[in-house]
Amino acid sequence: MEEPIIYHLIADYGVRVNILRASIDPGKRGRMFVELAGEDSQLSHGLNYLERTGVQVEPLAQEIQHLTERCTGCTSCVPHCPTQALDVDRQTWEVSFNPEKCIVCLSCLDVCIYKAMVLKDFSV
Ligand code: SF4
Ligand code: SF4
User: Which of 21, 95, 101, 118 could hold 33 in an S-S bridge, CB 3.0 to 4.6 Å?
Assistant: First the structure.
């Protein structure tokens, strides 16, 4: 999109925007995972603005699962997790996954060569 939608969300509607992951091809479609925060009215006006500009907004309808039987505990995924949903115990070096902290950014799926992190999609 040519429109600076993130700028407008912040400057015009007072919405706090945290971009978690983005893949955008100039002139083509793009996809962003964002966390939006603000008063109900700010969010409502901000989402209306996005709709008017042709942006399709969807709540996360996916969740990540950690398949412990596949996990080798290599810790490769831990530094790639932006929310510390994946963490390592510095005493035991055991890797843990906290689904409450996971924002489904998908970074760990790319990193884990053992396919221990999998995506469960409820949107289809
Ligand atoms: S990268 Fe995969 S195998 Fe390694 S600790 Fe993370 S989930 Fe486990
Ligand atoms: S998808 Fe993976 S890397 Fe992203 S927040 Fe969830 S556990 Fe962390």
Answer: 21
24 CA distance to ligand 1 middle (Å): 27
| CA 94 / ligand 1 centre spacing (Å) | 10
How many structural domains compose the chain? Answer: 2
Angle at 62 between CA 59 and CA 67, to 5 degrees: 155
- Write the pLDDT tens digit of every residue in 16-60: 998 877 777 766 778 888 889 999 999 999 999 999 998 988 877
**Mean of pLDDT over the chain:** 89
Same domain, 75 and 101: yes
Report the share of the chain in percent with pLDDT over 70: 94
Q: Could you tell me the residue range of the domain that residue 42 belongs to? A: 5-52
Is residue 57 domain-resident? no
| Residue 114 in contact with ligand 1 by CB distance below 6 A | yes
Residue 8 alpha carbon to ligand 2 centre in Å: 28
For residue 86, which ligand has an atom nearest its CA? 2
Q: What is d(CA 15, CA 121) in angstroms, rounded to the nearest whole number? A: 27
Phi-psi region of 24 (alpha: psi -120 to 50; beta: other; left: phi over 0): beta
